[in-house]
């Protein structure tokens, strides 16, 4: 209620199940503020027909795309079956209204499915928050600590990291622009080759001594020192495939990987491959 203190009447508020409760929706409605949010099944006041556990005798079995609801003005509680049960409470939308959405199947095809309008609007308004939570959960760096400020520090650090990745993706077309690769490049930049060990190398080698991965810091930095030199005939790291193997006696003096002299040597050391090459 404090967060909504300056919200204008007839505004739609969307929040996740951490906040959603029936008393909150009712108080907001008295201020002419409409709301929609996912809700936890253990919240007080939810109808038993909606919250009955799966597998019990009284449960109504819902197939994907089916839903049920209970309405007591001004609040509607909706249970919709997606891949699992989704619970939503709202004062803004008619629980009977639905839209057709597409859901990807296991075989890769897309299938039309009925979805309550309240859930469609919730996803539309909460998309940014859900995307942020998805990025955080993919590679979480938060750690438990007795110090209360530590959790806040890791949250702000992850928020800065995720926002930087989104901005970076909008302005760069990279071959390795995945979230994981971006985090690895940031981590290597922050470490800056520091190690408590005497020997430290960013070129990763296998047990036999062969190079199997080149970090972007080595591959793209000081391109002028990447000179071709003669070596043993091996498969080109850039263009060779299982179906079309290509071998070269030329290798990079810094990366220590075999490359065709043209055009692979130049393309391998570019942050992205231009369309005209």
UniProtKB/TrEMBL annotation:
Positions of transmembrane segments: 149-168
Keywords linked to the UniProt accession: Membrane, Transmembrane, Transmembrane helix
Keyword Ribonucleoprotein applies: no
Domain (PiggyBac transposable element-derived protein): residue spans on this chain: 13-165
PiggyBac transposable element-derived protein 4 C-terminal zinc-finger domain segment(s): 229-270
Alphabetical list of InterPro entries matching this protein: PGBD, PGBD4_Znf_C
Highest taxon, organism lineage: Eukaryota
UniProt-recorded name of the protein: PiggyBac transposable element-derived protein domain-containing protein
């Amino acid at each position: 209620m404090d967060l909504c203190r300056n919200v204008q009447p007839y505004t739609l508020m969307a929040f996740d199940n951490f906040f959603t409760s029936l008393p909150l929706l009712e108080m907001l409605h008295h201020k002419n503020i409409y709301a929609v949010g996912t809700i936890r099944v253990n919240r007080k006041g939810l109808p038993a027909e909606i919250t009955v556990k799966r597998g019990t005798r009284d449960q109504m079995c819902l197939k994907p795309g089916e839903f049920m609801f209970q309405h007591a003005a001004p609040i509607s509680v909706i249970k919709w079956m997606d891949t699992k049960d989704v619970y939503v409470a709202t004062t803004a939308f008619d629980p009977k209204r639905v839209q057709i959405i597409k859901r990807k199947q296991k075989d890769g095809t897309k299938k039309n499915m009925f979805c309550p309008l309240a859930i469609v609007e919730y996803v539309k308004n909460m998309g940014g928050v859900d995307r942020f939570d998805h990025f955080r959960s993919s590679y979480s760096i938060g750690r438990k600590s007795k110090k209360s400020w530590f959790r806040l520090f890791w949250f702000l650090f992850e928020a800065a990291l995720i926002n930087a990745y989104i901005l970076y993706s909008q302005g760069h077309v990279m071959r390795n622009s995945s979230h994981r690769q971006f985090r690895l490049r940031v981590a290597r930049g922050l470490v800056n080759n520091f190690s408590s060990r005497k020997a430290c190398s960013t070129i990763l080698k296998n047990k036999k001594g062969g190079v199997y991965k080149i970090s972007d810091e080595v591959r793209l930095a000081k391109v002028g020192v990447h000179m071709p030199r003669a070596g043993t005939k091996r498969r080109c790291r850039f263009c060779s495939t299982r179906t079309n193997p290509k071998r070269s006696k030329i290798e990079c003096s810094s990366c220590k990987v075999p490359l065709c002299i043209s055009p692979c040597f130049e393309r391998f050391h570019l942050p992205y491959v231009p369309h005209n090459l």
